[in-house]
Amino acid sequence: MTLEGLYKELADLNETEAQTIHKLVQALKRTRVSPLAYIEELMNFQPVGYNEKKDVYVHRMLITDELKNRFKILHGGITATFIDTAMGATVFQALGPDVKVVTLELTVNFLAPGVDGWLTAETKIVKRGKTIIVMETKVTDEREKLIASASSTFFRLDQEVR
Amino acid sequence: MTLEGLYKELADLNETEAQTIHKLVQALKRTRVSPLAYIEELMNFQPVGYNEKKDVYVHRMLITDELKNRFKILHGGITATFIDTAMGATVFQALGPDVKVVTLELTVNFLAPGVDGWLTAETKIVKRGKTIIVMETKVTDEREKLIASASSTFFRLDQEVR
Amino acid sequence: MTLEGLYKELADLNETEAQTIHKLVQALKRTRVSPLAYIEELMNFQPVGYNEKKDVYVHRMLITDELKNRFKILHGGITATFIDTAMGATVFQALGPDVKVVTLELTVNFLAPGVDGWLTAETKIVKRGKTIIVMETKVTDEREKLIASASSTFFRLDQEVR
Amino acid sequence: MTLEGLYKELADLNETEAQTIHKLVQALKRTRVSPLAYIEELMNFQPVGYNEKKDVYVHRMLITDELKNRFKILHGGITATFIDTAMGATVFQALGPDVKVVTLELTVNFLAPGVDGWLTAETKIVKRGKTIIVMETKVTDEREKLIASASSTFFRLDQEVR
Fold first, then answer.
1. In what residue span(s) does the Thioesterase domain sit (chains A, B, C, D) (predicted)?
2. Which of A87, B29, B63, D135 sits in a 20 to 30 Å window from C55, CA-based?
């Protein structure tokens, strides 16, 4: 795909669509310097820090139109993506950058629709085993309404099994 | 965002990035005429049909670079999005377009990484209650390797509760 | 079965076995005056009260030999039974005795073996909908070690659906 | 507890209660020669065999009054116990008696009440990894009605992790 071809393709976009493509381009450009995947940049995924009092790792994402389903609320799959990403980032922050993990299993309870604004994920490590890590995440919106609650089992790949 | 502003933004893209934006624009344009959400178009989500012998509804998606995580395999959240979308589409196909549902709970077991090509989801309705619908989905790749297995509880909104 | 027949059957029990049957008889007799099922009496299931500060309903059970698996730790199924019973009792306490519910789905993460003594379940209602109730339960032992963490979706039968 | 003490305790049982104690004693006596736990004997848990065509391991249990909840249907916790036991027995049959496993996580969807007669569990191994085993179990009653559907992640303890 040449740039000229791309320009032609864009010529019939209306203003809202141009705005959407602008956001998609911004997300793509962020992946040039970020360790995040494109889909995570599309969510504006960001670490907020460690809440020592609650013993939870905090992350956030922004609900935008591109992430909504046909009923104009946040796509449940994106909620799951946010949770999975927050859990993976928590392992990275809590156990160090050399720990490699895969998700074995993820259970999400969807409690209320995600409508707009920033969502916050608070992730707690409930088991920190040699090979098994179990985490729980609560997702709330800016009104502090609970949107989703999830649990997940992760497996450490860096623990060599012989 | 004006088109001219957008063109400037695109000027420094390399060829691979231009190709990515091309795909994103195509996905956005498909939402003009499709009932699918943008994220579903990005996955190239498609219905394949009903397999009468197995009693499953079949859907598929294409693994592309935009949908991968930093380890260059399909993002687990996208697998969950594919499953949730396939289940929602199954309700639509099996119960009719007037049935409105929300996902109450989704459990996904991740069994093998999604690497490339088309993924196929086979969804079975295991309970078809007045208000509760329970479905199970198996996701396989083109080599017929089982990538993920999931179960989910959906709630019918069209059944008025007084 | 006549009592005499039963007496004959018991004649070859050793002391430990007689002790076990004693406990089983006690549990059976408690069901005469208790709303609890036999299996719940066998677990010595008891309400402890509502912890206002934590906003959780507290219940407990006693690990006995009859409830262990062949590896001499608490049977995982009994842990699940304890959790399901604690959640059902929580609905009863929080919403009143006329509310009838069934469990739609239960997910349990087993975090450490149950070895001996009393187990405590703390149950929080995370969604209290018109027809859907979602709860989360944490099970700890007397050393405050986390044994299991669970989430569950309950359905209210008393909300008539027309 | 002496036998004489036990006899006194039994003196006021009515016929139904004596019948219940009879079954409990029979279950206890079976544990003398069986590898099963008491709770499994109480369920009359039995292996039925391997169904090669379906590639599932089949087990069964008998619904009795002792296993019911206060609504006179099978206690959901016992359904979970049946499933967990069937999965453990499947590992034993499929991988050999030296393989030691623990349940990491169990998700059960309760689809219909268990009322009476024998329940059948069909268990399929969907992932047979070096350390992780994922299984799915379907529970049906004698009318072939689907009572419950479950998935579970097991962890092999015999694979030494260094």
1. 72-147
2. A87
